[in-house]
C-alpha cells in the first residue's frame, strides 16, 4: 500500500513538471522546418539549427519565424504533451507532406527536411535536402520518413517490396500491391529506384598535396576516390588510391590502386561477394602491374548506428608483371591466392569518424607470398559536403622481386597524408 502511494505521488509530480520550451523555430517557404536559435536578422537570417548548425537564409525563402522571448518559459504538463498535438511540437507536420512530389524526413529534434531520399542502408539515411544539400543521417536520429514515389524496400528474409514508404513510430510501412508493416529492426535497405537511376550513386574525392622548397625540393600528391552504387540489398563500389612524390626531380613514390567489389546481402549478418578485383601498379616496387580477381563471402561483426565492422574472405587468382628482373628470370608470375578483407567504421563524435580498411593476400613465394594494404583515416566533417581527412597508408610485400640490377625493393611503404575531401 505504501509503495502504491509512492507511485501515485511520483505520477502527480511528473504531471506537474513543466516543459521548458526556449527554442526558436524557422519555417522555409518549401516547408522545411528548423529548431534552434536566431542569431541575427538583417538582410539574411542567421540561424543556429540543432541539426544543421549555422544557417544563413534569405528572407525570400522564409515563411515564418517563431521566436521565444528571452527568459520566457512555455509551461505544459507532461500529460498534456503526451495527448495534445498542439502542445507537442513533434506532432507538427508541413502542409506539403505526401502531396508535393517530394520526400520528407523528420528528425527527433522536430526538424523537417524536404528533398530526395537517396538510400537507407547500414543504419544510415542519405538524403538530399533542398536547403541543406546532401546529408548523411543516423537512422536512430530520424523519427519519420515519407516518400512521394514508390521505392524498393528490403526486409530481412523477405523479397524486396515495391511501393510508397512511411517510417513512423519504429514501424516501416510499404503501400504497394502487397502492403507491409514491419518493425524497422527488420529493415535492411531502401533505394528510390531499385536497380535503376542516377540517385543510386554516391561517392567522395579526397586530395592531399604538400610542396617543399629550399635545400630540398619536394612535391607529394595523394588522391583517394570512391564511387558507390547501392540498392536495398546490394553494393557496387569502386575505390581508387594514388600516390606520387618527387624529391629534387627524382621520383620516390608513384603507385596506383583500383579496387572493385560487389556485395549481395543475404540477411542481417551474411553477404556474398561475387566480384572482388584489384589492379595495382608500382614501378618503384618492381611491379609493372598486378591483377587479383576472385570471389568471397562476408559477415557483419557489428552493424549498428555509429559502428560497422565487416570481414570477408575468399579464393582469388593473381597475375603479376614485373618491371625488371634478373637474367634468365621470368618477368611474370601467376598463382592462386587467398584474400582476407576487413572494413571498420566508428563514429567518435558527431563530426569525427574513424575508418580503417585492411586487405591481406596470400600467394606463392614467386608472387610475393604475403601482401597487405591498410588505410586508416580520421575523417572530420567541416561543413556539409566538405571533410578534412588524415590518413595513414601502409603497404607490405614479404618477398619483393629482385630487379635487373640485383637490388631488392623495400618491403614496407608508409604514407601519412592530410587532405580535403568532397562528398557527392
Task: Provide a quick synopsis of the model.
This protein is mainly beta and 424 residues long. The chain has helices at 2-16, 78-83; strands spanning 24-28, 33-41, 44-49, 53-58, 62-66, 103-107, 112-121, 124-129, 133-138, 142-146, 151-155, 161-168, 171-176, 180-183, 187-191, 201-212, 218-231, 234-247, 250-265, 270-282, 287-304, 307-322, 332-347, 352-362, 370-383, 386-397, 412-423. The chain is flat, with a radius of gyration of 27 Å.
Could you describe the 3D structure shown?
- This protein has 3 domains: 14-92, SH3 type barrels (Roll); 93-193, no CATH class; 200-423, Porin, CATH 2.40.160.40.
- It has a 12-stranded antiparallel β-barrel.
- The radius of gyration is 27 Å and the shape is flat.
- It is built from 2 helices and 27 strands.
- Strand 3 and strand 4 form a beta hairpin.
- The chain has helices at residues 2-16, 78-83, and strands spanning 24-28, 33-41, 44-49, 53-58, 62-66, 103-107, 112-121, 124-129, 133-138, 142-146, 151-155, 161-168, 171-176, 180-183, 187-191, 201-212, 218-231, 234-247, 250-265, 270-282, 287-304, 307-322, 332-347, 352-362, 370-383, 386-397, 412-423.
- The longest helix has 15 residues, at 2-16.
- The model is unreliable at 1-21 and 73-87 (pLDDT under 50).
- It has 424 residues and is mainly beta.
